[in-house]
Protein: Carbohydrate ABC transporter ATP-binding protein, CUT1 family
Organism: Paracoccus laeviglucosivorans
Amino acid sequence: MARITLENLAHSYSPHPKGDQDFALKRLNHVWQDGGAYALLGASGCGKTTLLNIISGLLRPSQGRILFGERDVTDAPTTERNIAQVFQFPVVYDTMTVRENLAFPLRNRGKEPAYIAERVDRIARMIGMEEMLTRRARGLTADAKQKISLGRGMVREDVNAILFDEPLTVIDPQMKWELRTQLRQLHREFGHTMIYVTHDQTEALTFAQQVVVMHEGRVVQMGTPAELFETPAHSFVGYFIGSPGMNFIDARIDGDRAILPGGQVVELGARYAANGRTQIGIRPEYAHLSETGLPVTIRRIEDVGRHRIVRAELAGAAFNITMPEDAPMPADPHVHLMPGKLGIYADDWRVAPEAGGNA
Ligand SMILES: Nc1ncnc2c1ncn2[C@@H]1O[C@H](COP(=O)(O)OP(=O)(O)OP(=O)(O)O)[C@@H](O)[C@H]1O
């Protein structure tokens, strides 16, 4: 296994890129620690698959280097990188049995038959296919074939990393949950570096210790699920994580106060110097309806089970508030923003308070 370093990496599918807009992957420096469980999260088209294919060697980056440990593998073929990759759709050998499919990567590397048998049985148990080991892959459902692909990706113990590219797309919801739990267990047991690509925040947050969020070809933040929720570094992370996402309201920042478009003042509890398009950001969970605070107009209330989502308007912008099911609705609705939970954003990036500040 190895630490994977991406150094000044960038990729354009165009042979003559003219500017940033021609890069599917903009310049990027990143380290995947040996043994980490990472999710790579982002909307469709943000560059996740491009990045995975560069790590596995299916694609050569147009700029920069990739290191496995200290070794530069930028020009090394896939076979030398010792990476297992599981794709969105099944890749199985139809004429082989399930057992032969699972054993294939181990046979290829000349492992002992006894070891292969033991390892295949173990993986088959994990993916719930012990009963099917003697069946040919041809004729199995897409779901079953994808489980074989997953099993094959995990059967080797000696890989540098296992890359999963939206591997559960074709799996039914109940099995999805089970397989995700199994992957986590496998990670704990064997400590492989795992990179799991998804556009689904639930998948990312339940699988990974560290979530790397990509937006328009850039890594905008890497953090634990809690860090991404509490302190999104970029407004995209605020929108993308959480349900509903973070509220952003345009505001002029004046030292330790934010002035909203209607003139309402929000005390920030610390001083900020912010230029460009400035906004305050707050999660719906940290905004509470009350009789005092900033006046809001309520547009709609949605009951989503354990709580309600209040769709409101604050200072001319859409504003969501989560509210316990049994909380009373104020007669004259105002919203109270929890001061320690406010973030200040300038041109989409979170701004730290000035030295000596405490927000
Ligand atoms: N072979 C290719 N040739 C040209 N452009 C490509 C190629 N593959 C991907 N792109 C473009 O590069 C950008 C990033 O694509 P990529 O597939 O890496 O994103 P993604 O985040 O994995 O999206 P998805 O979840 O939809 O697979 C997109 O704009 C895509 O259209």
